[in-house]
Amino acid sequence: MGKYVIGIGEALWDMLPEGKKLGGAPANFAYHASQFGLEGMAVSAIGHDQLGEEIVEALEEHNLPYHLDRVEYPTGTVQVTLDAQGIPQYEIKTGVAWDNIPYTKELALLAQQCQAVCFGSLAQRNAVSRESIGLFLDAVPQDCLKVFDINLRQDFYSLEVLEDSFRRCNILKINDEELVVLSRLMALPGLALEEKCRFLIKTYDLQMLILTCGVNGSYVFYEGGMSFLDTPKVTVADTVGAGDSFTGAFVGSILKGKSIPEAHNTAVKVSAFVCTQSGAMPVVPDNLK
Question: Tell me, what CATH number does 138's domain have?
Answer without folding.
Answer: 3.40.1190.20
